Amino acid sequence: MDFLRPASWEEALAAKAEHPTAVPIAGGTDVMVEINFDHRRPEYLLDLNRIADLGEWEVGEETVRLGASVPYTKIMENLRAELPGLALASHTVASPQIRNRGGVGGNLGCASPAGDAHPALLSAGCEVEVESAARGVRMIPIDEFYLGVKRNALQQDELIRAVHLPKADGPQQFSKVGTRNAMVIAVCAFGIALHPETRTVRTGIGSAAPTPIRAKEAEQFLAAALDEGGFWESGAPIPPSVAKQFAQLASGACNPIDDVRGSAKYRRHAVGIMARRTLGWTWESYRGNAHGTKGGAQCA
Amino acid sequence: MRVNFTVNGRKQEADDVWEGESLLYVLRERMGLPGSKNACEQGECGSCTVRLDGVPVCSCLVAAGQVEGREVVTVEGLADFAKQRAEHGGCASGACGTSLQDAQQWQSKPAASRTGENGELAPIQQAFIDAGAVQCGFCTPGLLVAADELLERNASPSDSDIREALSGNLCRCTGYEKILDAVRLAAARGENQTAGQGA
User: Fold this and answer.
1) Which of A72, A148, B103, B161 has the fewest C-beta atoms under 10 angstroms from its C-beta?
2) What CATH number should be reported for the domain holding residue A234?
3) Tens of pLDDT along B67-80?
4) How far is A236 from chain B (nearest CA, A)?
């Protein structure tokens, strides 16, 4: 094994081009587990810790450019207003020690359907900035990023540099089912973002299909129901029948498996429950009740 | 490969490090510092917690090569680290720290036993002893490092602050109540001390 220590982004791209099998390591919270357990013996480890740029973020007019290695702790502490869904999701990642090291770039690179950031990234809508020495920068829409179980749209010579997320234009929520609060891989998870400016709703589902997915039918149904009923203007409570239908469609979007963490049946059920509850929280918040956006300690 | 980094305030050099090796392995097997414990090797138990440039991390998930030029504090250096912080707000002179030899021979000796110069403990260590927060002791080093960092940034944590800060550290003797007592005790003592100084 060789340990590559590029001091700059350009050096990292050059190293990845020269050694396409090199495994990038940033927080190490996934890669080191595989190495410790002998599940992986990469020819090259490509350390990204020396590239300071990856740990930084910029809040622009309309978007946040989030460096791939910004630790979850920093997202929770600094970007709760701009990226409420991702901040909530970040808070459910493992433990403080892991949140101090891990970042969104690792979640994307690993592309596990159980990654906690995915539902928030899907519901916010975002673009992944990847780059190669040969072809330069490529912006991949998040909807085109996940290709299969632990497979993403990255080419062998490309590295993830940042994620560009729109600043929240409405309430966002995240909910995760596990056997306890800390240090748990999601049995399943659900993210929702209301986008009042475009009168749309976006969702993200984790751990209930081969890849993180959106519940597109549920989104379309809800957007139509909210529009037709004039709910965006009136701010009236969402009728239980609408919430129920939304939950059923979200549940129907799942394509889960039975595994040690939960059965497929349970996952479908739980996703429906989380969809209904998170819709309630975000809508209450949209109506001016402070319940939704601040909720750090809500359980689904 | 060779890795140069600072351990407990002193510059150290590790040779013949395998590229896939963890910081935990380097600390335990190459530096002779077994205080950081090796249990799950997947970041779930927190017993290998150390400070990396001040930040609590699982040393089993840090590749050795990633610590080149960086600063690590282990439980063996915690007493001196806490002392420097209390007296000088950190190590400004560069003359402080715990030598490798001292760290290798470090033993916990409560202040009450008055055994002399080796008897110094960090306030959190003394509080763990006084509160009876140590059972088998395996999880203790990681908990000490995590709890000390909590009190450094939050001198009077709420119970939920404490629970969250320690949520990455497992105790399989399940002595959590006493551990929470110990952190509360250390926090209360810290406040009393500050009050006594008229600050």
Assistant:
1) A148
2) 3.30.390.50
3) 999 999 999 999 99
4) 35
Rounded Cα gap, residues A16 and A13, in angstroms: 5
Domain that holds residue A37: 1-46
Answer whether A30's CB lies under 8 Å from B62's CB: no
- The reply to whether residue B58 touches residue A35, judged by beta carbons under 8 angstroms, is no
Q: Is residue A27 part of a domain?
A: yes
Count up the domains in chain A and report the number. Answer: 2
Contact residues on chain B for A2, CB-CB shorter than 8 A: 19
Name which CATH class applies to B3-74: alpha beta
Cβ B168–A97 below 8 Å, yes or no?
yes
Tell me which residue of A56, A186, A194, A25 sits closest to A114, measured CA to CA.
A186
Residue ranges of chain B with per-residue pLDDT less than 70: 92-95, 110-119, 196-199
Interface test with B, best of A49, A97, A99 (most B CBs within 10 A): A97
Question: Where in the sequence of chain B do the CATH 3.10.20.30 domains occur?
Answer: 3-74
Q: Shortest Cα distance from A25 to chain B (angstroms)? A: 9
Extract the tokens encoding A257.
Answer: 């498996």
Residue A277 lies in a domain: yes
Q: What is the ipTM of this complex?
A: 0.93
Q: Is B66 on the interface with A (CB under 8 A)?
A: yes
- Can you name the CATH fold of B78-87+117-197? DNA polymerase; domain 1 (1.10.150)
Cβ-defined contact of A182 to B168 (cutoff 8 Å): yes
Instruction: Quote the minimal CA–CA distance from B66 to chain A in Å.
Output: 7
Question: pLDDT digits over B104-117, tens only?
Answer: 988 877 655 444 44
